[in-house]
Amino acid sequence: MTSSAGRQGTDPWSWLGSARAAVASRGLIRTLDPGEPDLLDVAGNDYLGLSGHPDVIAAAVEATHRYGTGSTGSRLVTGTTAVHLELEQALARRTGAEAALVFSSGYLANLGALSTLAGPGVLVVSDGANHASLVDGCRLSRAEVRVVAHRDVAAAEAAVSAFPGRAVIVTDAIFSVDGTLAPLRALHDVARRHGALLLVDEAHALGVLGPGGAGACAAAGLGAEDDVVRTVTLSKSLGSQGGAVLGTALLRDHLVDTARSFIFDTALAPAAAAAAPAPLRLGDIGRLADLAPVSRKLSQGPGG
Asked: Is pLDDT larger for residue 288 or for residue 67?
């Protein structure tokens, strides 16, 4: 057993100065600067410009007057309101999923999905460019994790085929690191051949791809497959905040009972829950038609 005698009288924060110096040496010092409302925002994720839409704001204000500013508890205690259930129904309808379960962030939705779908004795095959929330979900699931090269379907199949137990293939739909699209149909073919599940993070695809903005899986014809689980965020195209897992009704029930990031977290604020489905009701997903040409023009710079 290691004695603590050598630590007596030392500063318990002495490590922090060298840790900060190490961060600085890697050029990773970050600053938090307030955004100015009168500036044109081309760096955020409000892809359809709906966070400032009058009807979206009105929905949030109405919910605040009705339910207050906070949910006051987890979804299992006091945190489930009518607007949370309406949001889940709207997401399921829009995406073609059988059911949806709303979390307070997309990050927590990924943690909850992976902790439920995977675990000890399960293989998780993860794309090397996946978002940090998927990476952390893999780690926290305590599953056996194999990280494969970016968009490498053959490597994913090799990993799954060599594993004797249950497997989950995990990928972003659109990768935020480079904007590439996952080979979803090919990955689903691998999952189907080997009896695996496919978990797809649609954070950057919901509202951007697919019929009516239903996402990349819907665009690939996988929106109704029961061996495909999707996670989404509400903070990008829908102009609100929060996240959700989309899948079967049975999976939703199991998440409610077992996902720690759902059970032990304060529910999404009613204002955010009410604001998120407003764009789906408005039909402003029709702005999708303008998104691609505007994006291409902006990427070409001022002279484009």
From this structure: 67
